[in-house]
Amino acid sequence: MNEYENIRPPQRLLAFDTATSSLAVAVTEGGRVLAERNIHAERNHSAYLVTAIGDCLEAAGLAKQDLDGIAVGIGPGSYTGIRIAVTTAKTLAWSLRLPVYGVSSLAALALGGWAGSSGQDAAALGELAARRGEEGRRATAGGHWIAPLIDARRGQAYTALFGVTAPGGLPERLEPDAIRLMDGWADELQRQLEQLPPDERPARLWFVGETEKHEAAIAPLIAAFGELVQLVPYELEGAWMGIAGLARSWLPADEVHALEPNYTQLAEAEAKRLRNA
């Protein structure tokens, strides 16, 4: 059975993410991005999110009651940021009686960082996301690999791995979201590349997102594979969050009261409490 059978995505979708320092909001209709707002909020998202949503809806010419669904970044990333986004999404979905869709913040970051850097067309990818249930999904180890990074301090990053058949495809997951030591993660990716015959390796391995603090860990990969490895500092943008949300909405919606953030690890305060117990 096709996993998309009898599922149609919401026509008008509000999507937002606050898992990083970037507050990204978008409204989409079908595969088109009607409006977006991007605010570098330094993780002070509670002061801006509701206003940014209102501004985005106004720019799109819609009221909240015109929406058909809500997509929200559930992390991993900033604990406070994720809580703010998920709580806001659940409140809106419950009060407006709308379906809600939890989106991996790393998946949205991977899509936006790769698409912008490789010159992908947002309108074309939005159209593809709007009909992907008809075409199906296929993860690939060819084309390009994308490793999104959100810094988690102490040499760690929230990261995953996605593959895309370039040009003109949508990234598909190859490795799960997790918090990883970057030295070990870079070693693992190098091992995977070395095990592939040269003609089966991806054309590019993109590290996108909060890359600056992890350049030293990635340096051996660059030394081994040269221009195949690309580092792209990137802050998530609303348009790509909207397209990621639309792609996610081809799967069943989340139960509004059961939707939870993906923290990936215990908050530092909780970890300290447990250590001292």
From TrEMBL:
SUPFAM superfamilies the UniProt entry points to: Actin-like ATPase domain
Domain spans labelled Gcp-like: 41-114
Pfam families: TsaD
Superkingdom in the source lineage: Bacteria
InterPro entries according to UniProt: ATPase_NBD (IPR043129), Gcp-like_dom (IPR000905), T6A_TsaB (IPR022496)
UniProt-listed NCBIfam families: T6A_YeaZ (TIGR03725)
Protein name per the record: tRNA (Adenosine(37)-N6)-threonylcarbamoyltransferase complex dimerization subunit type 1 TsaB
Organism: Paenibacillus rhizolycopersici
The gene coding this protein: tsaB
